[in-house]
Amino acid sequence: MRGHKLSDEKWIKILKEFESTTLSLVDFCKQHDIGESTFYQKRAFLTKYKKKKIVETVTPVVFEPVLVTTNQDIRMEINGVSIKGDIHVLRSLLGVDA
Questions:
Q1: 93: domain range?
Q2: SS3 sequence of the chain
Q3: Which tens digits make up the pLDDT trace of 54-77?
Q4: How far apart are alpha carbons 87 and 66 in whole angstroms?
């Protein structure tokens, strides 16, 4: 098999396999009949593509200001993720100045 003709899905499997192997890059590429430069190019391309896809799928969250006048625990949920703590913990997590 030559590396240039593989699908992106197959390349992702190969890259994951490389991450878990103890072989050197040279030996791994020989074993899979892949040129080293091709390996580096595809890894760079897929890493960049993956990051781009992650950025495209991020949903912005808008917070409405709320005045909190209690010392009790506060619970908030954002996109299905629950956060619970006192006001100081939540301010710290959200990066809001006191």
A1: 61-98
A2: CCHHHCCHHHHHHHHHHHHHCCCCHHHHHHHHCCCHHHHHHHHHHHHHHHHHHHHHCCCCCCCCCCCCCCCCCEEEEECCEEEEECHHHHHHHHCCCC
A3: 444 556 666 666 666 666 777 777
A4: 11
Residues 42 and 87 in one domain: no
50 and 69 within one domain: no
Domain termination residue (choose one: 41, 56, 71): 56
One-letter amino acid of 28: F
Based on the structure, what is the number of domains in the chain? Answer: 2
Which residue ranges of the chain lie beneath pLDDT 70? 1-4, 50-71, 78-79, 97-98
Check: CB of residue 59 under 8 Å from CB of residue 79: yes
Environment class of 39 (CB within 10 Å of its CB; exposed 0-12, middle 13-18, buried 19+): buried
CA atoms 70, 75, 77, 78: torsion sign: positive
